[in-house]
Amino acid sequence: MADLHTARDHQGGREPALDFEAVYQGREISYGADDHRSDLIPWALDAPQPLVVELEAAGEITGPVLECGCGLGDNALFLAGRGYEVTAFDAAPSAIERSRAKATEAGSPVTFTVADATELHGIGVPGGFRTVVDSAMLHCLDADQRRAYLAGLRRVCAPGARLHALCFRGELAARLKMPADMDERSLREAFHDGWTIRRMEPRHYTTGLTRQAWQNLAPAGPGASERDDAVTVDQHGRVLLPFWQITADLT
After folding, report:
1. pLDDT digits (tens, 9 = 90+) for 131-188
2. What residues have CB less than 8 Å from 129, skipping those under 6 apart?
3. How many whole angstroms separate alpha carbon 249 and alpha carbon 87?
4. How does pLDDT run across 67-125, given as a tens digit for each residue?
5. Buried b (16+ CB within 10 A) or exposed e, 82-106
6. pTM exceeding 0.85
7. Cα 206 from Cα 245, distance rounded (Å)
8. CATH of 10-250, one of 3.40.50.10490, 3.40.50.150, 1.25.40.10, 3.90.1300.10
9. How far apart are alpha carbons 41 and 99 in whole angstroms?
10. Residue 192 contacts by C-beta under 8 Å, 6 or more apart in sequence?
11. 18-72 per-position pLDDT tens digit
């Protein structure tokens, strides 16, 4: 995940960014609009994100692969297990330390590294990456950081590379901290320079949260109706949050 300390604060009209290093160290932080604090990692599944598994099964991954904001490494380890050359980065050193330990235990060749998504220093492979997987990192960036991030990806990717980005939809803004707008127009604008969006569809992203854990983590605001507090869950009782599935080609 990007180094988000420069994201806009309340005076700029946005919530301050999350401290991801604190998250991976197991410290309590606030995710929502209120000050309720939790040590949960909502996106931790101890398994790959089902949408990433779906993309791989559909033949939409080509190596070498770069995973951005890899967190605890489960997507990267899954893709490496399917035979792809994978580099994965996160801005949180604790996340990378834990991912490397997983890779060692699994005997996986994933290259895990600490990097800032808006700079991508030290990131690269000969010939450039053919696929980029961004599973819930793009929405952590403000508008300026998005532009820097996508420009950096252009530098490290091969011509014609494909980016798969999974990010929050705007309706979550009332309950979760977001540094920038997540409506379709704003996101398309971010991809305007050098990328062609091939797909932008509303989907659902699997979290590791139960219904009650989600409601505790990010309570609905005052005056919200019962419908506003309703969530979708999968067959395992895990909350599914509204996301955009974006596929864009480097042009």
Report:
1. 999 999 999 999 999 999 999 999 999 999 999 999 999 888 878 888 888 899 999 9
2. 64, 65, 66, 87, 156, 157, 158, 161
3. 19
4. 999 999 999 999 999 999 999 999 999 999 999 999 999 999 999 999 999 999 999 99
5. eebbbbbbbbbebbbebbbebbeee
6. yes
7. 13
8. 3.40.50.150
9. 15
10. none
11. 899 999 999 998 887 677 889 999 999 999 999 999 999 999 999 999 999 999 9
Per-residue three-class SS string for the chain: CCCCCCCCCHHHCCCCCCCHHHHHCCCCEECECCCCEECCCCCCCCCCCHHHHHHHHCCCCCCCEEEECCCCCHHHHHHHHCCCCEEEEECCHHHHHHHHHHHHHHCCCCEEEECCCCCCCCCCCCCCEEEEEEECCHHHCCHHHHHHHHHHHHHHEEEEEEEEEEEECHHHHHCECCCCCCCHHHHHHHCCCCEEEEEEEEEEEECCCCHHHHHHHCCCCCCCCCCCCCCEECCCCCEEEEEEEEEEEEC
Using omega within 30 degrees of 0 as the cis cutoff, is the peptide bond preceding 64 cis? yes
| Token pair for 68 | 């951005």
246 closest CA partner among 207, 206, 205, 197: 197
What pLDDT was estimated at residue 31?
87
d(CA 64, CA 131): 7
Q: Using an 8 Å Cβ cutoff, are 86 and 62 in contact?
A: no
Give the tokens for residue 39.
């040590």
Query: What residues does each domain of the chain span?
Result: 10-250
